[in-house]
Design brief:
- This protein is of the alpha/beta class.
- Helix content is 37%, strand content 15%.
- Strand 6 and strand 7 form a beta hairpin.
- Helix 1 packs antiparallel against helix 8 and helix 8 crosses helix 13.
- Bound molecules: pyridoxal-5'-phosphate.
- Pyridoxal-5'-phosphate binds next to helix 3 and helix 4.
Length: 422
């Protein structure tokens, strides 16, 4: 039996996997256009018709079958703007999943509202609709599902729950560009969808974000909240015709970032096809290995966006290894897995009442204390996921088909040598 590379044996592979982000002639050419023009920003409200920001927004929305795509500075403020556009206010409650990036919930706090942490579904790692339903009440204004890693949340069930309660849905699609459930794309199930173009994402300008909606009134509010809370008057977009009606700040994206995003969008379909094919090959191989499972509910109607390829391992069959130790063994074989989140988001100290005291108004803080119990959060699936989940980043899926076979071989090797790792 081949010896594990971590313990001095030869690795399965020595070749690196593709790196990310990837720039090229397309990015250079679009950037050059901006540099040589005298338009370096997208206009007072960020939506001048000839601005690259507007063109990118339209094309990105078209990819998702949506009416409006409004570019903003990043995915975190995209959530804030979406909440403000809906009129979510101090003390309102917003249901968020417990296993996600922290800003899904901190964005709720940024508008003075209360994040209510709900558990995830053990199969998909996305918001558990039953637990979300259990936690809705008279103060719930929105549900904020995350399509984790690119896997669609159970949107039909969430839409039903929201519909019954008169509650809005904002989909956090930061990890789910072009994900799809039953032919309907991420970002179009709820009132609003938010996206991120931060450096790790499958489409990136280093930083960037977007708010998507089909509703013209919400689109108008997003545009206003994107730029100082200023609304258009009759006269158009001269600054003298803009009236500041709501408190906001400047969340516009620069034309340089939009230029890079236009080039990324052009390359996306080819990269997406490659990721889908490689992920399918990888899943087929991993499914044969005892005790490892790709986080993918068997829904033929879902298209996974593959921001992350999440793998859950059965601790009992893997010597109760810590995820970091398993990643060390895989990394030594030349396969770049990283541990998944090590704690549910509510374990970040920012969510402790003593730390929120300085930021939330008394009414919101009182509400928070009533609905959030950090001593007994009752999110067992999220807690469990932190101890048995590892992640492959999407750029690995841009390799050749044979590169996937190396990943499968590394898993087999570790599985057969598991006693050595204990
Ligand atoms: C699920 C989720 N929500 C929100 C964000 C925030 O996006 P950004 O980093 O662009 O602010 C991220 C990004 O990292 C994310 O993964």
């Amino acid at each position: 039996m081949a010896k594990l590379a971590l313990l001095g044996g030869s690795p399965v592979r020595n070749k690196p996997y593709p790196s990310w982000p990837q720039g090229g002639p397309g990015e250079t050419s679009w950037l050059d256009k901006v540099l040589k023009s005298n338009r370096w920003f997208a206009g007072l409200q960020g939506d001048d018709p000839d601005a690259l920001g507007s063109i990118f927004g339209e094309r990105f929305a078209a990819l998702h079958g949506a009416r409006f795509g409004l570019s903003v500075a990043n995915g975190s403020v995209a959530i804030e703007i979406a909440l403000r556009a809906l009129g979510v206010k101090r003390g309102d409650e917003v249901i968020v999943p417990s296993y996600t990036f922290v800003s899904t919930a901190t964005s709720v706090l940024m508008v003075g509202a209360v994040p209510v942490f709900a558990d995830i579904d053990k199969q998909s790692y996305c918001l558990d609709h039953r637990d979300a339903a259990r936690r809705t009440g008279e103060h719930t204004r929105a549900i904020l599902p995350v399509h984790l890693g690119g896997h669609m949340a159970d949107m039909p069930s969430l839409v039903e729950i929201a519909g019954k309660g008169g509650i809005a849905i904002i989909e956090d699609c930061a990890q789910a560009i072009d994900s799809d459930l039953g032919g309907q794309k991420a970002g179009t199930w709820g009132e609003l969808g938010t996206f991120s173009f931060q450096s790790n994402k499958t489409m990136t300008a280093g930083e960037g974000g977007l708010v998507m909606t089909n509703d013209p009134n919400l689109a108008e509010r997003v545009v206003a909240f994107r730029a100082f809370g200023r609304f258009r008057g009759q006269g158009g977009v001269r600054s003298s015709d803009l009236t500041c009606r709501h408190l906001s700040s400047n969340y516009r994206l620069s034309e340089f970032q939009s230029a890079v995003l236009l080039a990324q969008l052009e390359k996306f379909p080819e990269q997406d096809t490659r990721r889908q094919a490689n992920a399918a090959r990888l899943t087929k191989g991993l499914n044969e290995i005892p005790g490892v499972r790709h986080i993918l509910v068997n829904r033929p109607s879902m298209k996974h966006g593959y921001y992350y390829y999440l793998v859950r391992f059965e601790p009992a069959l893997y010597g109760n290894l810590d995820p970091a130790r398993l990643c060390d063994a895989l990394n030594a074989e030349g396969v770049p897995f990283v541990p998944g989140d090590r704690k549910p988001i509510y374990r970040h100290p920012v969510f402790e009442v003593k730390n929120l005291n300085d930021y939330l108004c008394p009414r919101a803080l009182e509400r928070y204390c009533q609905v959030v119990d950090l001593r007994n959060p009752q999110c067992p699936a999220a807690e469990e996921a932190c101890g048995c989940t590892i992640i492959l980043r999407h750029q690995v899926l841009l390799g050749e088909p044979e590169d996937m076979d190396d990943i499968i071989e590394a898993f087999w090797k570790i599985q057969k040598n598991i006693d050595e790792l204990r």
